[in-house]
Amino acid sequence: MTAHVGIVLISHSRALAEGAAELARQMGVGEVEVRAAGGAEDGGLGTSLDLLETAVSEADQGAGVVVIADLGSSVLTTRTLLEDREEGGTEVVLADAPFVEGAVAAASAAAGGADVAAVTRAASEAWDFRKT
Amino acid sequence: MDTYAWMVRFAELVSADAERLTRLDSAIGDGDHGSNLDRGMRAAAEALSADLPPGKVLMTAGRTLVSKTGGASGPLYGTALRRAGKALGDASEVGAAELGAALRAALEGVQELGKAEEGDKTMVDALAPAVTAYEAAAGEGLATAARAALDAAEKGAEATVPLQARKGRASYLGPRSVGHQDPGAASTVLLFRALAETAASS
Questions:
Q1: Which of A99, A122, B146, B152 could form a disulfide with A109 if both were Cys (CB 3.0 to 4.6 A apart)?
Q2: Which pLDDT score, from 0 to 100, does residue B115 have?
Q3: What are chain A's domains?
Q4: Could A73 and B72 be called an inter-chain contact, meaning their C-beta atoms sit closer than 8 Å?
């Protein structure tokens, strides 16, 4: 079996990250590792680089990881992680995507065997899902 | 320049002003800036020791801030301090010129990470003028340059009051962010107050 791209959802809120991960896992049809890195380490609102690092390594099945972030410090924490990563490891990318729709689109694409670039693109295209 | 004393003093000033910073952040953000930065800097101060080389002190403080702070100020201040520490390298003594290069590197790191420009109502509005003022006065020695940087940071932070935020949580408020001082600019003043006090006493 070929490895699927993993998805990590980082949010200020643990409940929000886990809820979005629940939705995304449904689209990943049991084949995509979707991990939540929500809240601060104590479970309150915030973001944690350590939780993000753990989530990324757990989501990594060898085909790379796409990270989807919600507000402000989720984005900054992810950029910091990317800056710190050593060359030569599995590819990890921050997608420019809406949080929930991007997570669902990314998991669907990953389940279909898309690579990191295609999963990232699918997540970004979720900006186009208009509601009115 | 004793970077260890600088960081310890910064942690003390943040602790003393944590409530004010959180109050500023409650007006236009998510109300956690003071408590977050206080938690991060307490952990950073604990992780440091006076016998580390100056650059290593800043890198250690930065790394601790990134992992322990819990909000946007962690990656931002963490990147600033790590870049500054990296610029100092392994030098055992840091003079006015070296510190100027380190402060410039810190500003560049913050702007790269947060993509903020001057006028966006962020910490850059205090940091950028402070670095410029420091560089202009660096020839007159560390204490004078640090004092000039503090004055510029204070003016820059005060000037964020009438601005409308274009970055961070405050940007969601649009025009309602006008009339409040940016909490990140306010805490940046403390970073330079700690620097000026440390430079004056050395």
A1: A122
A2: 94
A3: 6-128 (3.40.50.510)
A4: yes
> Which of B67, B75, B79 is the closest to A73 by Cβ?
B75
Domains of chain B by range and CATH?
3-201 (1.25.40.340)
B170 token code pair: 């405050």
Question: Is pLDDT at A1 greater than 60 in this prediction?
Answer: no
CA dist., res. A34 & res. A66, Å (int) = 10
How far is residue A125's CA from residue A105's CA, in Å, rounded to a whole number? 8
The closest of B194, B85, B189 to B130, measured between CA atoms, is: B189
Spell out which residues of chain A touch residue B77, defining contact as CB-CB under 8 Å: none
Chain A hits for B75, CB-CB cut-off 8 Å, are 49, 73, 76-77, 79-80
pLDDT attached to residue B70? 85
In the structure encoding, which two tokens stand for residue B140, read together?
Answer: 């007159």
- Relative to beta strand A6-11, strand A65-69 is parallel
Residue spans of chain B under pLDDT 50: none
Tell whether B71 is within 8 A of chain A (Cβ).
yes
Q: Which residue has the tokens 């601060």?
A: A40
pLDDT at A2: 76
Which position has the token pair 């900054």?
Answer: A76
Q: In angstroms, what CA-CA distances link B145 with B6, B97, B133, B188? A: 15, 10, 7, 16
Residue B159 carries which DSSP code?
Answer: T
Rounded Cα–Cα distance for residues B58 and B73 (Å)? 16
- H-helix or E-strand containing A6? strand A6-11
Confidence class for position A122, pLDDT limits 50, 70, 90:
very high
Which residues of A are tagged catalytic?
A: 12
Predicted local distance difference test score (pLDDT) of residue B194: 98
Q: Name, in order, each residue with C-beta under 8 angstroms of A131's C-beta and a sequence gap of 6 or more.
A: none
Stretch A89-95: mean pLDDT: 94
